[in-house]
Request: fold
Amino acid sequence: MPVSRVTHQSEPNSSFTRGDHAKASLASKRNGKLRLMLQTLVQVSLFCLLAVICVQAEQYFDLPIPGSVIGLAIVLLLLLTKTIPEHRVSLGSAWLIAELLLFFIPPVVSVIKYQSLFENYGVQLMVMLVLGTVFVLVGTGFVVDRVFRFERRMNRQRAQALLASGMED
Amino acid sequence: MSIFEGTGSVLVGIFSLVMTLVCYTGAKYAYGKFKFWWLSPIMLAPLGIISLVLLLDIPLASYFQFSHLLTLMLTPAVIAFAVPIYRERHLIAKYPLTLSIGVVVGLFLGLISSWGLSKLVSLPPELSKSVLVRFVSTPFAMEATSSFGGVPELTAMLVLLTGVLGMMICEPIFRLAKINTSLGKGAALGASAHGVGAAKASEIGEEEGVVASLTMIFTGIAMVLAAPLFSQLFV
Reply:
């Protein structure tokens, strides 16, 4: 992946004299915001490029896994194998996730087309949404609460066993 | 009678895109400044834009001409979730059982409840099919909904409503159901209210937020991967 090569992290240049350095750091503070924006832009563009490639691959090879998930797996693999360091993609990733709402505003706007559907079934729909949400909140919360207490106990016991076996040696 | 009559539709398209960006940024700015929940961009931005489209009588085709480019960004946004997964790999390694059970239980309860309730309440097929994926985050839901025969636009709206709903009712529910642990709250919010829930969870606590995000991402991925299978089961 070319992801690691493109963005430039600001490294203080060692050949600077002290005065130059102070001036440079002042300038870099002023440029800091611009540089961050540029880095974000480059990283977001790379995420977009990878998305295009993955979606094309999905269609070309007729894969059962969507291109987006293939892309996610690729980036995760590159991060886990340290092929790309996290800071090369973290700005772009943070931006894309933070602005998620913006990306699905257009489809939400098009519910205007289905206005009559919401007018006719609005009440039933809301009842259903509320009941379903309560069900999932309580069910998931209840189960995970119990499993978490169990796993936390297991982790502690394992830690204690490790400690005890360490003392025997 | 549209005020845009006679105007080139390209101009209307550009205007729509700019309007969307301005409303979104404005709502974000207002929320950052005043922090009232009803100013939350997730409520204000879509409502504001829908009102403007209706008031100015903008044809939907013109609205979408350029605005649909924004929706294309949902694919790179899914890829971007690789970074938070990587960042929280230590938490995943510490509680693999709790997290995966949270994902499986959340996914199945979401599907079963939507499916069962849509059988009880008679809804037209567009709605009852689109409602099935409403608990997973929008980029995943939009990807998965076609397997179930859902309509992407309706799905986006239902996902949004579900998220806002989960955010609003979670705290009294946790108190009543005595859900006290950080992982319990986080998983419940991530599974029931996706991104909105994750934002709410990080208000409750840091660990809650991380767990909610992870649960949201993994339920989303699982939903997308298993949608063809689930669509056979939940007809």
